Amino acid sequence: MSIDALPPEATAAQAASSTPTGAMIRTLGLVSAICGLIIVSSYQGTLSAVQANKQIAVERAVFKVLPEAKSIVEYQVTPSGVSVITGELPAGAVKFFGAYDDAGKLNGIAAEGGAKGYGDTVRVLFGYKLDCQCVVGFGVVSMRETPGIGDKILTDKDFLANFVALDAQLNKELSGLANEVKTVKHGTKTKAWEIDAIAGATITSRAVGRAINQSAQALLPLVVPQLDKIRTKS
Amino acid sequence: MSLENSRNWDEFMEGIWKQNPTFVMILGMCPTLAVTVSAMNAISMGLATTFVLVFSCLLISLMRNVVPKEVRIAIYIVIIATFVTAVDYAIQAISLALYDALGAFIQLIVVNCIILGRAEAHAAKNPPLPAAINALGMGAGFTIGLLSLGVVREILGAGSLFGISLFGASFQPWVIMVLPPGGFFVLGSWLLLFAWWAKRKERLAAAVEVNQHA
User: Fold this and answer.
1) With the CA atoms of B74, B76, B77 and B79 taken in that order, what torsion angle do they form, in degrees rounded to the nearest 10?
2) Complete edge-to-edge strand list for the sheet that includes strand A106-116
3) Helix, strand or coil, per DSSP, at residue A25
4) B179 CB near a chain A CB, below 8 Å?
5) Where along chain A do its domains lie?
6) What backbone torsions phi and psi does residue A128 show, to the nearest 5 degrees?
7) Which of chain A's termini has less CB crowding within 10 Å, N or C?
8) Burial A58-67 (b: 16+ CB within 10 A, else e)
9) What's the gap in Å between the CA of B130 and the closest CA on chain A?
10) What residues does each domain of chain B span?
């Protein structure tokens, strides 16, 4: 049936029930404009607080693994030089933190590493002291390990004792670690560069060892020859 | 209490009791099961959802006469997503630890069926004040629901409440309670309790009626 054949009341009702295209677009545009305004203003309003929070979170994580440090500087290192990170990390560069004491002297460096654990990648941040050439502590940046099992890596006293002075010195050619940092089965640690795994949480313990090893192997050969450039805070 | 006040009170109580989103309507189960591993997480998630509920229902109610019905769902979703984004930034500004603990579930508030359900079923048909009060009640009801799970799971699964250790170092936590199955166990137990209570009330009412007839 064509519209002309309908009684006049029916056409009027039909016209009233459907919204003109212009009105729909107008309303959608209006709502988008209002919402856009709310989003942008909440972004701008919280930006400084969010950035400050992120900075505090990074500092706290580094101070936890290097307790004597008082301030940090974020560096990037390539075979040709060390520089303070300003924008995006260029390809081939490795990121690390220089931790400085009150007098502005380099106290140690900290770097992130990650390796596959039981649930997902275990990302750790470890502190490295230059005088002993050893790893002196680690903290977890993110993990999805089983509560009560994998997350013992943060609380197990025997496991944490591995990281009081975990040997990670470079070989003579400065091309890599003299001895690979390695997690061994619970109770079989004999060397200073070995990590004694937690019984029952071997996979997570291994992930910590691999994460530190990979990151140290990539970072230390680049940083150690150029250490003099960052000994004092610029 | 005046008529107006009592009507507002009814609107508010609807979400807390009669139509509690968690225990009566069984809505929004995704955050209910996923983020209630601790009381703090549960309360934060509840408050974030309440904020989004109240403000989106308020805005939707204010616009209810200008929104063409053909494009209403798109408009509601845009409004809800806007307030979720605002909450997302606010939580990042308050605490990054909390933000990490809640993870993707903050962004997933956009698709929480409680909010779109309220927008469609209530806010689009009512003036701003009752719409906001009803949304506040629903949000409070949802927060209470999350908190009832969060408190039980944290006490049993971690031996603490709001991060404060309750039983000392000798307590062996019931770890499964903070794992996904624990969410189902605790939710199931709460539902069982409420169902038993409702049945009991029904039975008592029936007994009273029989007595009256006798």
Assistant:
1) 120
2) A81-84, A71-78, A94-100, A106-116, A121-129, A134-142, A166-167
3) helix
4) yes
5) 1-65, 67-230
6) -130, 125
7) N
8) bbebbbebbe
9) 22
10) 3-164+172-213
Q: For A23, which of B68, B85, B157 is closest by C-beta distance?
A: B68
CA trace torsion B167, B172, B174, B179 (10° rounding): 100
Cα(A11)–Cα(B134) distance, rounded to whole angstroms?
A: 39
What is d(CA A99, CA A124) in angstroms, rounded to the nearest whole number?
17
ipTM of the prediction: 0.83
The pLDDT of residue B86:
96
Q: What's the pTM?
A: 0.80
| Rounded Cα–Cα distance for residues B153 and B186 (Å) | 7
Cβ neighbours of A38 in B, within 8 Å: 82-83, 86
- Which residues of chain B lie closer than 8 angstroms to A46, CB-CB? 89-90, 92-93
- Most B CBs within 10 A among A18, A30, A42, hence the mutation to make, goes to A42
Closest CA to A185 of A165, A166, A161, A209: A209
Is B90 in contact with A42 (Cβ distance < 8 A)?
Answer: yes
